[in-house]
Design brief:
It is a single chain. With about 375 residues, the protein is of the alpha/beta class. It folds into two domains: about 90 residues, 3-Layer(aba) Sandwich (Rossmann fold), CATH 3.40.50; about 230 residues, NAD(P)-binding Rossmann-like Domain (Rossmann fold, 3-Layer(aba) Sandwich). The protein contains twelve helices and 13 strands. The strands form three sheets. A six-stranded parallel beta sheet has the order 7-6-8-9-10-11. Helix 4 links the parallel strand 6 and strand 7. Helix 1 runs parallel beside helix 8 and helix 3 packs across helix 4. The longest helix is centred in the last third of the chain and has 20 residues. About 40% of the residues are buried.
Length: about 375
C-alpha cells in the first residue's frame, strides 16, 4: 500500500477538525495522514516527507527554507504578508489564501464602528464625509452601502476606478477607513502608508479605522498626534503589541474584524476545497458539509429601526445589537489567547428574529451590502 500523504493543520484554525477530519477523511479516507499542530511548536523546515500544510496568518514563512517535500501550502487567511511568496514560487511550491472569504465580516465590523460613531456624535452624517481607501471585496461593499444610505463619501484605490485620483484633500474627511494589503513594494507601498505626513493633513478629531494590517498605519507617528482618533483591529508586531498605541485607541480589538462564525467557516471550507481540487481535481462533497453551529434569535423593534433611520440615517441600534466591537476589548498580554479562542461572534446571516424576518435579507433590503 502506498504511503499516505502527510497533512499538517494548525489546531487553532476554526472548524479544522470538522473540515479536515470529519469531512475530508470521510470523502477521501485513505489518502492523508492527518496531524494537528500548535503553530508556535511547528517547524515547517523539518518536513521531510511529501505533505500539504495548512497555516494561519500567525505563522510566518519569511526567512524559512521551505522544503520541496511541501506540495501545497494553504493559509486560512485573506492577508498574505506572512507568506514569502517569492521563495515559494522559486521552489515551485503552490500556495493558496482564503481571499475574500471574510469580506462580509469585516464590512459588518465597519458598520458597527460607524454606528458607534453616529450614536456618540463623533460623526455627523449631515456634515461629515468618509474616505474609503482600497476597493477590494471589503471596500467596494462598504462604498455601495454608504451610497445606499446617502452618506457623503469618496473612494481611493490606485488600481481601480475611484471617485478621487489622489489623496491631496485629506482635510475633507472625518472618517478614513483602510482596506489595503500590506506591501513594501513601490510604487504603491502601504507599509507606513498612514504616516506623519498623512496625519498632518487630517482635520482635528478625524477618525481612522484600520482593519487591514498592522504596519499600514505608523503607530509611532500616530502617538505624536493628540487631535486624532483610531479604531484598530490590527497592530504592528502582533501578538507583542505596543502598550501606548493600544491604550490610545478609541476601540481596540484583537485582529478579529473578519471573524464571524460564518466567515471562519467559509475560510476553512475554501482551504479544504483548494486541497481537494489540487490533489484530486474534484469538488468538495457538499452533502457532508453542515454548519456545526446554530443560528441565534434576537428580539428587535421595527419601529426602533425606523426611528434610527430618521435620527441617524442608519440602523445603528440593530447593528450594535448584532455586534458591538466594544465588547471585544482586551488586555495587552491576552492578545494571542483571546484571538485564538475567538469563536463566538455571529454574522448577519447567522441571526434570526422574533419578527420571523431573515435578518440578513432585511438588512440587505435596507441597503446594507
Amino acid at each position: 500500500m502506498a504511503e499516505k500523504m502527510k497533512l499538517f493543520v494548525d489546531e487553532n484554525i476554526a472548524y479544522a477538525k470538522f473540515f479536515f477530519e470529519d469531512v475530508l477523511l470521510n470523502q477521501f479516507p485513505n489518502f492523508f495522514e492527518l496531524t494537528f499542530y500548535k503553530d508556535d511548536e511547528f517547524d515547517l523546515e523539518k518536513i521531510s516527507e511529501d505533505a500539504a500544510v495548512i497555516i494561519r496568518s500567525t505563522y510566518k514563512t519569511h526567512n524559512l527554507n521551505v522544503p520541496a517535500s511541501v506540495k501545497l501550502l494553504s493559509s486560512v487567511s485573506t492577508g498574505e504578508d506572512h507568506v514569502d511568496k517569492n521563495h515559494l514560487e522559486k521552489k515551485n511550491i503552490p500556495y493558496h489564501f482564503a481571499t475574500g472569504a471574510n469580506a462580509k465580516a469585516v464590512r459588518e465590523y465597519f458598520y458597527s464602528c460607524l454606528s458607534i460613531l453616529l450614536k456618540e456624535k463623533k460623526f455627523d452624517k449631515s456634515e461629515d464625509k468618509i474616505l474609503v481607501i482600497g476597493l477590494g471585496n471589503i471596500g467596494h461593499g462598504i462604498a455601495k452601502t454608504l451610497k445606499n444610505f446617502n452618506f457623503s463619501f469618496e473612494t481611493y484605490d490606485p488600481f481601480k476606478a475611484s471617485t478621487i485620483e489622489s489623496l491631496s484633500n485629506l482635510e475633507e474627511f472625518k472618517i478614513i477607513t483602510l482596506h489595503v494589503p500590506l506591501t513594501k513594494n513601490p510604487p504603491h507601498e502601504t507599509y507606513n502608508f498612514v504616516d506623519k505626513n498623512f496625519l498632518n493633513e487630517l482635520k482635528n478629531e478625524s477618525i481612522i479605522i484600520n482593519t487591514s494590517r498592522g504596519g499600514v498605519l505608523s503607530e509611532s507617528d500616530f502617538l505624536k498626534f493628540d487631535n486624532l482618533t483610531v479604531i484598530s483591529d490590527v497592530f504592528l508586531n502582533e501578538p507583542t503589541i505596543d502598550k501606548n498605541f493600544h491604550q490610545k485607541n478609541f476601540i481596540s480589538t484583537p485582529h478579529i474584524a473578519g471573524h464571524t462564525k460564518s466567515s471562519r467557516f467559509d475560510m476553512t471550507k475554501m482551504s479544504l476545497e483548494k486541497l481537494i481540487n489540487f490533489f484530486f481535481n474534484k469538488k468538495l462533497n457538499d452533502s457532508l458539509v453542515k454548519k456545526p453551529y446554530k443560528k441565534k434569535s434576537i428580539h428587535f423593534s421595527l419601529s426602533e429601526v425606523e426611528n434610527d433611520l430618521n435620527r441617524y440615517g442608519f440602523p445603528v441600534s440593530l447593528l450594535l445589537q448584532i455586534y458591538d466591537p466594544r465588547n471585544d476589548k482586551f488586555d495587552l498580554i491576552d492578545f494571542a489567547d483571546v484571538r485564538n479562542a475567538y469563536h463566538h461572534r455571529l454574522g448577519y446571516e447567522d441571526i434570526t428574529s422574533n419578527n420571523d424576518l431573515n435578518v440578513s435579507e432585511y438588512l440587505f433590503e435596507l441597503g446594507i451590502e
